[in-house]
Amino acid sequence: MISDIESRFARKGNMMKTTIKNIRKSLSVLCFVMLIPMAAAAIPPDECSNEAIPPSTPSSAFTELEDGSVVRHEPTGLEWQRCEFGTFWRWIESQERMGCVPPWGSSNSHRFSWPEAVHLGADPVGGWRLPNVNELRSIVEHCRSDPAINQSVFPDVSSIRTYWSGSPYVDDPEQAWRVGMGQGRGRDAYKFASSIRVRLVRDAGSGEPSNAGDKQWSHEHHTNSARTIFAANGMVYSGSSDNTVVAADAQDGSLDWAHGHHGRSVVSVFVRDNVIYSGALEAKVVAADAGNGALLWYHEHHAAASLFERDGVLYSGSGDWSVYAMNTSDGSILWSHEHHEHGVTSVFEFDGVVYSGGGFWDRAIVAADASDGSLLWQHGHHSGTVNSVFVSDGVVYSSSDDNTVVAADADDGSLLWRHAHHGRSVRSVMVREDIVYSGAGDGTLIAADAENGNFLWIHDNHEDSMRAVYQKDGVVYSASVDGMVIASEAPSLEEFGDN
Predict the structure, then answer these.
(1) What is the rounded distance in angstroms from the CA atom of residue 464 to the CA atom of residue 440?
(2) What pLDDT does residue 470 have?
(3) pTM of whole model > 0.70?
(4) What angle do CA 491, 497, 499 make, to 5 degrees?
(5) DSSP states of 95-115 as a string?
(6) CA 413 – CA 407 distance, rounded (Å)
(7) Phi and psi at residue 409, in whole multiples of 5°?
């Protein structure tokens, strides 16, 4: 029996080996949503449903730490995340209070098997871990039920919530202990089939400070949705539904210049050799001086939803179902292909191959010869529009409206892995230093291990749906539909150890 269980764990080994690095900082609400007091405020007392029973977890027994997203239980010395995994400590406007809510626009469906839960609580940096069953019972409130927890300390917990403990069930190695918040009772549950929630704990003082996910700056130079972003030359370039291309200083986000050479929403920008290429929702591709935005040339062959330049050739994906190769000196067409069956949403050239993603009626990744556009292969691993394609070290990474990020072999398109860490459409993906960054419609930016797709890190610095992500020189730049561009500290893979 034991060997069978061990083999099951081995098969599950690549499911979600997760590291939660200082999650309270990564997931904390932004100052533009609410200014959180630096000094800890007293936690209001919670009500008991049976006044004959003194409270077992009175609010006075807990101390708020840092931004209030963590509390220390003074009798035990344990530090708890106030929000269960997958929900974030932020201001709830309709109720005028702080609380635990899922990412913007997503459903709260973060439930896990026991092996996944154990990996979620294996953070060597932040010190977070899965509580044992006795630790989990220590936050049960015995003077109330439905839920049997202090809702002032741990808000937004329903009576049907059940949390995994890290304690295996002695009488059956296929079971582990869980604690339900309806009556606060511990019960056994099947490790692999059960889908249960997670609340993490750490020993006092075990957390280490981290800057990953901290917002460095933000700008609102756009008056409408920021739809595309690129970093180069010490600048951050972005395009928007306000028809402009903006260049901002990468150090502080201050405006350097803006151009309005387009007449419709700018949906793609790419910079190479001090030239910025941009495409919009009009039949126009523009080349401008990246130093000042001055127009160099433009063509009106097609509307470019995506652009990529290499070795004097500008590749573009178009709404007319075609991929074009153009001369960067004047925009003249070298070749085009129509291997897609819908509009082309993304394009990327790597090692003599042009990779492109298709729209809703196509959903395919196509690989074509960069010299003439001839078809090499295509895959259909996505079930929704392919929004973004990025190639690194022989792997094609793509994101889709089906809420997933896919990694495929660049030589033949065979599937390597898939992750679905986001709660809504994944709009942008890029890879840097073995980390896959992806931004989604739920407002979250997620970092995953490029080798296996395992979750590493998350921030929800954006108040609205994210449209584009780009990492350069240790900073992650992201753009959202509210016109906001944010620069955040990027994590390093080494910080996560053997994930």
Answers:
(1) 10
(2) 96
(3) no
(4) 95
(5) TTEEEEEPSTT------B-HH
(6) 9
(7) -65, 125
Residue 439 tokens, joined = 């931004």
Measured in whole angstroms, the distance separating CA 143 from the mean position of its chain's CA atoms is: 39
Q: State the residue for tokens 């509580």.
A: 131
DSSP 204-273: TT------TT-EEEEE---SS-EEEEEEETTEEEEEETTS-EEEEETTT--EEEEE---SS-EEEEEEET
DSSP per-residue codes, 280-333: ESSS-EEEEETTT--EEEEE-S--EEEEEEETTEEEEEETTS-EEEEETTT--E
The DSSP letter of residue 152 is: T
pLDDT in tens, 310-341: 999 999 999 899 999 999 999 999 999 999 99
3-state secondary structure 163-174: EEEEEECCCCCC
How far is Cα 395 from Cα 431, in angstroms, rounded to an integer?
Answer: 10
Handedness of CA 65, 68, 72, 78 (dihedral sign): negative
pLDDT tens per residue across span 236-283: 999 999 999 999 999 999 999 999 999 999 999 999 999 999 999 999
Write the single-letter amino acid at 404. Answer: T
Residue 27 class from Cβ within 10 Å (0-12 exposed, 13-18 middle, 19+ buried)? buried
Q: What share of the chain is helix, strand, coil (3-state, %, to 5)?
A: 5, 40, 50
Of the chain, the end-to-end C-alpha distance in Å amounts to 27
Residue 234, class by beta-carbon neighbours within 10 Å (0-12 exposed, 13-18 middle, 19+ buried)?
Answer: exposed
Burial class (CB in 10 A: 0-12, 13-18, 19+), 249: middle
Burial of 455 (0-12, 13-18, 19+ CB in 10 A): buried
Structure tokens at 183: 């009556």
Only one residue has tokens 């925009």, namely: 331
The enclosing H or E element of 435 equals strand 435-440
Domains of the chain, first to last: 2-203 (no CATH), 215-496 (2.130.10.10)
Give 137's pLDDT tier (boundaries 50, 70, 90): very high
Neighbours of 258 (CB within 10 A): 16
- Residue at 474: amino acid letter: G
DSSP class of residue 362 equals T
DSSP annotation of 1 reads: -
The side-by-side arrangement of strands in the sheet containing 255-259 is: 226-232, 235-240, 245-249, 255-259
